[in-house]
Amino acid sequence: MTHSASDGPIKAQRPAGAGLDWEDEVAEPPFKVLTREEAQALRVRQGELLSPWRLVALQAVVGGVIALVWWLATGSGGKAGSALCGAAAVVMPNALMAWGMARVLGTAPSAAVLGFMFWELIKIMLAVAILAAAAKWMPDLSWPALLVALIGCLKVNWLALLWRGRKKRDGH
């Protein structure tokens, strides 16, 4: 089929399953300002947020327990020390990030996003530095002990999220 000028303008047809173009308008839900009572009711419905400091403390406890288990199971202080290094590679950077983000959160949203990216970068660099220092200066480093503690401390984040979701679902 050919198109002539008398047929009218040609309209581009979007293939089925094509994504949105930049020019497409997406309807945003209306923004509603909550009253004080509505905000308090929303907080009650959503439940308490887990404090970053509690999460860091829980990671430290888990790391200490894992190091204690390594020490009791092997009788080796080197393996317990390796486990403590693995825990420190998670706990210390997270504590630093929690401290830094507490200072940034009261600022403008764009500053908070930049602050988050900055502190996340610092957190990663500190974790890598702790692991590198342990590899260099611990002659009896046990990588399995270090990795078990590191992974155990990292899993605390997921367990806290699961616990919070379960609490919310149960209505407690």
TrEMBL record:
UniProt-recorded name of the protein: ATP synthase subunit I
Species name: Roseateles violae
UniProt main location, coarse: membrane
The keyword Cell membrane is annotated on this UniProt entry: yes
Subcellular location: Cell membrane
Keyword Membrane: yes
Membrane-protein topology: Multi-pass membrane protein
Origin: domain of life: Bacteria
Transmembrane segments: 53-73, 79-99, 111-135, 141-163
Keywords: Cell membrane, Membrane, Transmembrane, Transmembrane helix
